[in-house]
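Input record (one chain):
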Amino acid sequence: SGGTLAVTIGGPAYRAGLKENDIITKINDSEIDFQQGLQTVLQNFAPGDEIKVTYWRQGQESETMINVGESK
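The corresponding structure, as predicted from the sequence alone:
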């Protein structure tokens, strides 16, 4: 799947409203790829930070805001 990162059930993005198999392409303005995975990028933020997530769903790009550290 190259540089794509699909959302998994139960992860922070899923809890924030993204759906399973949405593909996250950017966090704020940082490109997400296979080398720089989602967890790696999220480690740069503190719990409570709000980040902009750009993602693909069914061929359409969308954006949403996610609050980091929503792990319950």
